[in-house]
Specification:
Length: 231
Amino acid sequence: MDIYLRASGVEAMGCWLIRNGYRYKFHSRLYSDIHFRSDALALTAKCVKGSSSFENPLLAVYNFTEKWRHVDNNRLARCVQLIVVDVDPISYVLHEFHSTVVMNFITPTSAVCVFPRATLVDRRSFVTKIRPQHKEEWQRWLQKYRSRGFSVVEDAVDVESVLLGSRYIGDSHTFVVYFQDMPPTRSIYGNHGLVYRFDVLDRSSGVVADGACLRVAEPYIWTLLSKYYGY
């Protein structure tokens, strides 16, 4: 499981995992909560500096693993990654993930699939983000999702499974399951609604990277294209 969060929630989330049977893992070794707290504290300086890698607002990744347990004669251990980003986590999912198949997430109040028709019905994943620095990782995820029965679309004009134009999380083209038993709470960063706006653009827009067939962009891009270029 991957948990995306902002820097201020890292220590609380990590300590909660440790209290619930997980152990902090760093360089293949397991450590106590004291070591994790120390590493989480070191993140503060990095966050203030706005440090990231490859133009990616990723600040840090912390790994946790639970104790081994036996299920149906198999020795298993669940793993959790705390992935710290310098932007709204929903923004990171939309604008930094490699393709539409992984644009699904769970918040404290709901579960969301951003491209349900392509993902759940057509079993297609449209590439939206290219990172030339990560060629080996790129091949791994391609193989991973193709082995799961998804058709990965890297460079195509036919994107009929996806609605182009202005959208927002929670619109009629999003699949959302709301958790009715969750009371409203105020997070560290204030109240957080699901209405996050974004644009879905195809190659004719001129802003899609080579090797991709879509771009999930900030909403103003679609407006500018329409206003100045009649897109």
